[in-house]
């Protein structure tokens, strides 16, 4: 591998078992948003067969590109913000990609902290004889943001042990909530009678599933770089994503059919076990949110020109910004902007895969840090990002854009992030053959 002394490479002594990495993925999948997607699928009128197919195909598509990204990370030992320099140039990866990933991860860390703080305050305040005032919610958001941030600052080992403990406990709690909810509400009959008259279709279902983890598939490099082999990347990705994703989305779908809501924590509270509901909510948010702070910290380190030795500091900065945004309620003002950031990032997978696996023939010795900005990578990435946003309906959530360009409202086609990845991959291969190998 040429010119890869970036200060981010994983050493052989830091390599982890594939089960450790799979546990991180499973922890990321077991979250309230995944339950929500299950509820959205039933709301779209999909049959149970269509829901299962949507989950398998959607997460299957994500696993394909996250495996290729992950295997390259395993080969090079680099996080995605640094690894992108092979396709977009060192400046392109540092100033464009690191900025996008840092903004997206910091923002979503704040949103998750705010969600956890609000729900925690709503559950705990009555037990303390108090009201869940805005001040109480802000304090709760700060407390949980700090706790989650401390775990992220511990690095991969902290994430590993958190998920070893939390994932089995969450599965048990969710199973209890699912079974109790079905039993209490005569759920067997409701599920047997579930036969929606109209369906939004399989493509709609796949789009919803892919959107739920499209960003996670790209930042997989940050964790798969600790894998011992390419085979371990494949095993950890499939075992970590598919079973947990299928379980959580199906749980959300079944709960929506039976009770009319998808949130296991709320259902547990309604069943008279608020402590279990609180545990489920906090752990589900915690295991997912630490990955936002971890990847955000790595991206911020690269953006500021630091090595990974400063990782704890930049992770602390990233998490602190997200926590403060959550505490002061500023995140509601730019959730659409964060959604846009998250839609822009998946096409990065296309250029990274094309540069390493097609033009570089998948050989570690062919990987090199390109100096400056690489024209083929930047053009292909921007084109793919534009296609992903247009065909994924991302721009439709911006009224001013729709007013100026009405076609954006109905421009959705297949799965936006997947479209963007394919376009960026193909375009990079074409442009790499046209442009000179050395880009300034």
What's the topology here?
Layout: H1 18-29, H2 32-43, H3 48-76, H4 80-83, H5 85-127, H6 134-153, H7 156-184, H8 187-193, H9 202-218, H10 221-224, H11 230-259, H12 264-270, H13 274-303, H14 311-327, H15 335-344, H16 347-359, H17 375-391, H18 399-404, H19 416-434
Helix pairs in contact: 1-7, 1-11, 1-13, 2-9, 2-11, 3-9, 3-11, 3-16, 5-6, 5-13, 5-14, 5-15, 5-16, 5-17, 6-13, 6-14, 7-11, 7-12, 7-13, 8-11, 12-13, 13-14, 16-17, 16-19, 17-19
Brief summary:
The chain is mainly α and 440 residues long.
What report would you give on this structure?
The protein has 440 residues and is mostly helical. The chain has a single domain (13-434), classed as Hydantoin permease (Orthogonal Bundle). Helices cover 74% and strands 0% of the residues. It contains 19 helices and no strands. The protein has helices at 18-29, 32-43, 48-76, 80-83, 85-127, 134-153, 156-184, 187-193, 202-218, 221-224, 230-259, 264-270, 274-303, 311-327, 335-344, 347-359, 375-391, 399-404, 416-434. It is globular.
């Amino acid at each position: 591998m040429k010119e890869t002394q970036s200060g981010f490479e994983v050493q052989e002594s830091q390599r982890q078992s594939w089960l450790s990495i799979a546990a991180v993925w499973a922890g990321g999948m077991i979250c309230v948003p995944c339950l929500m997607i299950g509820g959205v699928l039933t709301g779209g009128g999909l049959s149970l067969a269509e829901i299962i197919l949507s989950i398998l195909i959607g997460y299957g598509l994500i696993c394909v590109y996250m495996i290729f990204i992950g295997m390259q990370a395993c080969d090079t030992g680099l996080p995605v913000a640094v690894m992108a320099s092979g396709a977009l140039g060192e400046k392109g990866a540092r100033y464009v990609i690191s900025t996008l990933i840092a903004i997206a991860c910091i923002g979503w860390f704040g949103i998750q902290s705010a969600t956890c703080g609000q729900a925690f305050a709503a559950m705990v305040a009555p037990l303390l004889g108090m009201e869940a005032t805005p001040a109480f919610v802000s304090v709760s958001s700060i407390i949980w943001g700090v706790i989650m941030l401390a775990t992220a600052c511990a690095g991969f080992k902290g994430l590993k042990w958190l998920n070893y403990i939390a994932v089995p406990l969450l599965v048990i709690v969710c199973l209890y909530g699912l079974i109790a909810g079905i039993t209490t509400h005569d759920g067997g009959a409701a599920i047997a009678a579930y036969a929606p008259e109209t369906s939004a279709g399989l493509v709609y279902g796949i789009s919803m599933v892919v959107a739920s983890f499209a960003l996670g598939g790209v930042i997989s490099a940050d964790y798969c770089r600790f894998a011992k082999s390419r085979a371990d990347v494949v095993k950890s990705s499939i075992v970590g994503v598919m079973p947990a994703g299928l379980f959580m989305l199906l749980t959300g779908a079944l709960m929506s059919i039976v009770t009319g809501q998808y949130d296991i924590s709320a259902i547990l509270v309604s069943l008279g076990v608020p402590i279990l509901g609180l545990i489920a909510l906090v752990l589900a948010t915690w295991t997912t949110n630490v990955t936002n702070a971890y990847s955000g910290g790595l991206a911020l380190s690269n953006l500021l020109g630091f090595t990974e030795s400063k990782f704890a500091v930049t992770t602390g900065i990233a998490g602190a910004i997200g926590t403060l945004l959550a505490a002061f309620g500023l995140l509601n003002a730019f959730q659409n902007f964060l959604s846009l950031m998250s839609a822009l990032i998946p096409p990065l997978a296309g250029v990274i895969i094309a540069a390493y696996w097609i033009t570089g023939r998948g050989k570690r010795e062919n990987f090199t840090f390109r100096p400056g900005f690489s024209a083929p990578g930047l053009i292909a990435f921007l084109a793919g990002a534009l296609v992903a946003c247009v065909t994924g309906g991302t721009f439709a959530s911006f009224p001013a854009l729709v007013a100026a360009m009405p076609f954006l409202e109905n421009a959705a086609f297949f799965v936006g992030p997947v479209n963007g990845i394919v376009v960026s991959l193909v375009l990079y291969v074409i442009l790499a053959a046209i442009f000179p190998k050395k880009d300034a």
